[in-house]
C-alpha cells in the first residue's frame, strides 16, 4: 500500500508529489494528462521568464519521477474505502491502494465525489465546483486532501503549484507528527 496516491499531475499534483516523494513517502501519481496547463503560455511564473505549458507539465512529471514517485498515465475511475486507506481503480484496469489521497484534478471534481468528498460552488472564473477544504487542504473525508484549482485557489500556475506544495507539507507533517520543512543548501564546491 502506498503512503499517498495523488490524482492529477498538473502543477498542483506534480508539486505535491515532488514534496511527498522527496520526503520519503511512497507516492503514486495517477494522471490522465488532460489538464488545462498544456494549453497555457506562462510569463508570470516566478524564476522562469517564459515557458509553454506542455514543457512545464513534462518537466514536472520528470521531476517527480526523478525524486521517486511512480507516475501512471491513466484515468482514476473508481475508489472505495478499505481498511487503512483507499483502493483506486483506473480506466486501464490497474488498481492501487494508498493510505492517503490528494485530489489535484483541476477543473474536475468527479473522482473526488465518488470518494464522498464534499463540494461547493467555485469562486474563480469558469471553475464551477470545488472541494470544500479546510485551511490545510483536508476535505470532508478523513485521509483525503485536495489542492490547486480543484481546491478553489486562484487559477494561476504558480499558485496551484504552491498550493500542491502546501498541502503536501501539511500531509507530510501529519504523517511525521512534527512540522516538516524541506530545505536543501548549496553544496560546497570541490
Ligand atoms: C489557455 C490557458 C492559458 C493560461 N495561461 C496562464 C498564464 O499565462 N499564467 C498562469 O499562471 N496560469 C495560466 N493558466 C492557468 C493555469 O494553467 C492553471 O491555473 C493551473 O495550471 C492549473 O493547475 P492544476 O494542477 O490545478 O490543474 P490542471 O493543470 O488542469 O491539472 C489537473 C490534472 O488532473 C488530471 N485529472 C483530472 N481528473 C483525473 C482522474 N480522474 N484521473 C486521473 N487524472 C485526472 C487531469 O488530466 C490533469 O492532468 C492558463 C490556463 C489556460 C486554460
Automatic annotation (TrEMBL):
Homodimer. Residues 2-109 form the FAD/NAD(P)-binding domain. It comes from the Bacteria. GO terms for molecular function: oxidoreductase activity. Keywords: Flavoprotein, Oxidoreductase. InterPro entries: FAD/NAD-bd_sf (IPR036188), FAD/NAD-binding_dom (IPR023753), Ferredoxin-NADP_redctase_2 (IPR050097). Its cofactor is FAD. This is FAD-binding protein. The keyword Oxidoreductase applies.
Amino acid at each position: 500500500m502506498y503512503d499517498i496516491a495523488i490524482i492529477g499531475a498538473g502543477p498542483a499534483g506534480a508539486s505535491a508529489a515532488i514534496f511527498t516523494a522527496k520526503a520519503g513517502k511512497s507516492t503514486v501519481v495517477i494522471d490522465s494528462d488532460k489538464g488545462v496547463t498544456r494549453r497555457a503560455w506562462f510569463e508570470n511564473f516566478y524564476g522562469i521568464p517564459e515557458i509553454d505549458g506542455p514543457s512545464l507539465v513534462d518537466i514536472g512529471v520528470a521531476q517527480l519521477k526523478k525524486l521517486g514517485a511512480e507516475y501512471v498515465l491513466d484515468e482514476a475511475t473508481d475508489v472505495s474505502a478499505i481498511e487503512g486507506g483507499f483502493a483506486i481503480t483506473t480506466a486501464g484496469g490497474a488498481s492501487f491502494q494508498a493510505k492517503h489521497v490528494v485530489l489535484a484534478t483541476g477543473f474536475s471534481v468527479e473522482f473526488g465525489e465518488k470518494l464522498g468528498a464534499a463540494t461547493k460552488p467555485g469562486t474563480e472564473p469558469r471553475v464551477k465546483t470545488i472541494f470544500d477544504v479546510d485551511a490545510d487542504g483536508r476535505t470532508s473525508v478523513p485521509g483525503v486532501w485536495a489542492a490547486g484549482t480543484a481546491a478553489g485557489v486562484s487559477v494561476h500556475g504558480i499558485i496551484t503549484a504552491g498550493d500542491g506544495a502546501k498541502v503536501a507539507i501539511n500531509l507530510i507533517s501529519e504523517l511525521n507528527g512534527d512540522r516538516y520543512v524541506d530545505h536543501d543548501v548549496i553544496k560546497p564546491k570541490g
